[in-house]
Design goal:
Elements lengths: L5 H27 L3 H22 L4
C-alpha cells in the first residue's frame, strides 16, 4: 500500500464507495428508461464511474 495517512485513506475509501454508488444508480436509471439514447448514455457514464473506481483502487496497493 502507498504511504497514505489515515485521513487520505478514509477519503480514498469514501471516493471509491461514491463511484460505485453512482455507477449502480446510473445503471438503475438506465434500466427504467425507454429512450435508447439515454439508456446508452447512462450505461456509458456508469462504466466511466466504475473505471474511475478501479483507478482509485490502485492507490490502495
Amino acid at each position: 500500500m502507498s504511504n497514505l495517512n489515515l485521513v487520505e485513506l478514509q477519503n480514498l475509501r469514501h471516493l471509491i464507495g461514491a463511484h460505485e454508488t453512482v455507477a449502480n444508480k446510473l445503471d438503475d436509471y438506465a434500466n427504467q428508461c425507454t429512450d435508447q439514447n439515454l439508456v446508452q448514455m447512462l450505461h456509458a457514464d456508469a462504466q466511466e464511474a466504475r473505471t474511475a473506481k478501479q483507478t482509485l483502487l490502485t492507490f490502495l496497493k
